[in-house]
Amino acid sequence: AVQIKLNVMEGFPMANKIPMTTPLVEMDGDEMTRVLWAWIKEKLILPFVDLKTEYYDLGLLHRNKTRDQVTIDAANATKRLGVAVKCATITPNRQRMEEYPQLTEMWKSPNGTIRAILDGTAFRAPIVLPMIHPVVKNWEAPITIARHAYGDMYKAVDMVTEEPGTATLTFKGESGAEKTLTVQTVSGPAVWQGQHNTEKSIRAFARSCFQYAINQRQDLWFSTKDTISKVYDGEFKRIFEEEYETTYKVEFERLGLTYFYTLIDDAVARVIRSRGDFIWALKNYDGDVMSDMVSTAFGSLAMMTSVLVSPDGKYEYEAAHGTVTRHYYKYLKGEETSTNPVATLFAWTGALRKRGELDGIAALGQFADKLEQATIDTIEGGTMTRDLVGLWEGETPARGVTSLEFIRAIKANLEKRL
């Protein structure tokens, strides 16, 4: 189901709001982030923007009701409209199947589905504040994680076997040709997994990374483990080098940028000893893990932005964290929570800025800039959610407040800037 939302708030005449022409694709989500989503819209966006969205409910129960067709529809809408903003969503596991007995299937990750349809690369970067210093003391500037958004274990098949035997891997070509490899012979119970990637997706990943590095004027690092995975990871390395040499080398050298490849274990050591200020391109699982490491080391996972960029220039903005289940259960009991909304808020500002850029509405980008700065002003003024209080190193005493109090404080600072 598609719902076009033309949002109007009483007491704010349309003439005083920033106009929009093309809708954003709005993907609602789950649990505490869904609550924050509604508050951000109500308090910080609708009073100031004539917001137009094409709305898709990606909450778990609605995905179940539509047999996940709503996720596919949302991704296709993003291809059509060009810019989307997404709330955090649940990817159900066995525990979630017990929590939500209405579920008819253990539905796949919505992010994985959207990434596959857009053939996009997820770029994740921490929101850096001068009064919250990274755990890694020599990090002076953000490190952006570029995560390949297709394949590997996220589209793998796996199984458990109970007896001795041999597993083989066979490819049957359309021409009729076959290739077969022996995976392993085992003497007892075993677990197996088959994963894949495509040359087209790896090449799109490489192009997105090089182009993003040029746009951001930052060096690009890429790392795999091709010494062990000589064929699989070796293809990633080969394609990246080929794209760099044939398409991007001249522009990189003109801008004084560096493309650097190394093994992932060496890269981890180099990253820890670096000063930051580069893009680190990683395969799907590696990017999933390292983005959490980088965001936590910079302060908080709730302060990590994420944008999915397709090779043809479609953008989907979201927070890099999950649905904050523990806080949601407190909220259901009527308890106040201090959930950090900053990454979700910056997903909205990123989408509004890009929409304004594509539609030639400078006021949308200016509003996004002012909302982000009002958020930073609020934190630097000593008002923040409790997850940041223990990290605070500013001279102003830190005051931990509830999520709603924090959003209201941001609104007060935003109104001053407007």
Describe the structure.
The structure is a single chain. This protein is α/β, with parallel strands linked by helices. Helices cover 43% and strands 23% of the residues. It has helices at residues 31-45, 60-65, 69-81, 94-99, 110-118, 199-216, 232-255, 264-273, 284-298, 325-332, 342-359, 362-380, 386-389, 403-417; strands spanning 3-6, 24-28, 52-57, 83-86, 121-126, 143-148, 152-161, 165-172, 178-186, 190-196, 219-224, 259-263, 278-282, 304-309, 315-319, 383-385, 399-401. An eleven-stranded mixed β-sheet has the order 1-3-2-4-15-14-5-6-13-11-12, with helices on both faces. It has a two-stranded antiparallel sheet with strand order 7-10. Helix 3 (69-81) packs parallel to helix 5 (110-118) and helix 6 runs parallel beside helix 7 (232-255). The longest helix is centred in the middle third of the chain and has 24 residues, at 232-255. Residues 6-14 have low confidence and may be disordered.
Give descriptors for this structure.
two-stranded antiparallel sheet; globular; 14 helices; 11-stranded mixed β-sheet; alpha/beta; 418 residues; 17 strands
List the total number of helices.
14
**Cα shape:** globular
Number of strands: 17
Which ranges are low-confidence, i.e. pLDDT below 50, for 5 or more consecutive residues? Answer: 6-14
Strand percent estimate: 15-25%
Mean pLDDT level? 93
Strand order of the largest sheet: 1-3-2-4-15-14-5-6-13-11-12
Distance between the termini: 36 Å
From the alpha-carbon coordinates, what is the Rg to the nearest angstrom?
A: 23 Å
Largest beta-sheet details: 11 strands, mixed
Q: Assign the structural class, choosing from mainly alpha, mainly beta, alpha/beta, alpha+beta, or little secondary structure.
A: alpha/beta
Name the helicity range: 40-55%
